[in-house]
Write a structure and sequence with these properties.
Layout: E1 2-5, E2 11-15, H1 30-38, E3 45-46, E4 56-59, E5 72-75, E6 81-86, E7 90-96, E8 101-106, H2 108-113, H3 115-125, E9 131-135, H4 148-158, E10 163-165, E11 171-173, H5 175-185, E12 189-193, H6 207-210, E13 216-222
Parallel strand pairs: 3-6, 4-5, 9-12
Antiparallel strand pairs: 1-2, 2-13, 5-8, 6-13, 7-8, 7-9, 10-11
């Protein structure tokens, strides 16, 4: 697991890969994989039934809202582990010096719906004054073949050009570029931006490239020894 200290309030981001095992909570063995990953009790983890929405939930106690439909969670309890799962979409982990943490799952539909806007607003309304982010591995622009109609929809919402081409000259979407742009517009300081592609690196589960049903987990927690 790649661990990235965010540099605020002891908050750490973590991004698993296929060698850490399957982290999809509905699949056998994922519970023990998560516990082994961080050494945190499963009851402290919040995981979501992700539906490509703009909904973010406020987590007041460890493990609250497990399995609820949403695509981001925000909290500050020192025992909480907030998490999302991905297999090509962009995982975004955020934190603030006030101790607020967030984990967001952002695919193209979530980007269009405004999941990052919702998450940042929820952090701000909960007391976060400045926010930093770590953006984890996702499918790259060279691998993400995309339709022109959907690309125009996403570009209209984001406000910048996100198109590209793959090696065969087919139209593609640069999803990570869109995420980074929105975070910048929201005043979020991106302190880590992964350059790893889930589809072509060979290190990650990928629904697009391989039809994988397994998932990576991206998590955020507080290391109170580093506060």
């Amino acid at each position: 697991m790649l661990r990235v200290p965010l540099g605020v309030a002891g908050i750490c981001a973590g991004f698993s890969d296929r060698y850490d095992g399957d982290m999809a909570m509905t699949r056998p063995g994922s519970e023990s994989n998560r516990v082994q990953l961080l050494g945190r009790e499963l009851g402290n983890w919040t995981w979501l039934n992700q539906v490509h929405s703009r909904d973010a939930l406020l987590v007041l106690q460890p493990g609250q809202h497990c399995g609820m439909e949403a695509d981001a969670c925000v909290g500050e309890h020192p025992d909480s582990v907030l998490s999302v799962t991905t297999a090509d979409c962009v995982p975004v982990i955020m934190g603030s010096s006030e101790g607020l943490m967030a984990a967001a799952h952002c695919g193209w539909r979530g980007l269009e719906a405004g999941i990052l806007d919702t998450t940042v607003r929820l952090m701000a309304s909960s007391g976060a004054k400045s926010i930093v982010a770590a953006v984890g591995p996702s499918i790259c622009a060279r691998c993400y073949e995309f339709s022109r109609t959907d690309l125009e929809r996403v570009e209209s919402c984001v406000g910048i050009s996100l198109g590209g081409e793959d090696q065969a000259g087919r139209l593609t979407l640069d999803l990570a570029k869109g995420v980074n742009w929105i975070l910048s517009r929201l005043g979020v300081d991106v302190v880590f931006l992964s350059d790893q592609c889930t589809a072509c690196s060979g290190r990650y589960f990928s629904a697009r490239a391989n039809g994988d049903v397994e998932r990576q987990v991206s998590a955020v927690w507080r290391d109170m020894d580093k506060v």
